[in-house]
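Chapter summary example.
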Amino acid sequence: MADILFQLGYIQKGHLLTVTRDDLVGQYIGHTAPKTKEVLKKAMGGVLFIDEAYYLYKPDNERDYGSEAIEILLQVMENQRDDLVVILAGYKEPMDKFYESNPGLSSRIANHIDFPDYTVEELLKISKLMLEEQQYQLTPEAEVALTEYIKRRKEKPLFANARSIKNALDRARMRQANRIFDSRGQVLTKKELVNLEAEDILQS
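The structure predicted for these 204 residues follows.
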């Protein structure tokens, strides 16, 4: 994205800086401003991508310094709008609340883009790509089990799309490793070593 904006002439450089709350907000008085300004200095001329931006604002904590970081961001977005592109990313509902609590931010963000969740079919393809990168594969039965898991998981709270699927696959690989360890003494083929079985998925 940063490279595209650079090629179009919207930014002076083609670099992208990805940060979270921890990179911007300090833990004591006087710590937040220099942290935030240093990040902005590094991002200047490019794209600043703030992931899970709603964590910047914690109204229930009077000793939280996230609001200070937001104020500095607002000043830069207003006074140096031609020098920096700021992208605030996060899940839709908490982002909506975040903007409601910070009207100054909402008025300075020109475009709001809502990306729909991946479909079951798309998540299955992503799962296979993740496994291929680690030299694993699903048996036909495991693919059916994973498809059913994805359908159920999508309906539950705190579903995080590909991140939730990655976590499920990590657990499945751990179960597969334990299953292979329990079968020590047996001669295993390469296929058995790289296959994830339905039982590895079903325990998720």
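To summarize the output: The radius of gyration is 22 Å.
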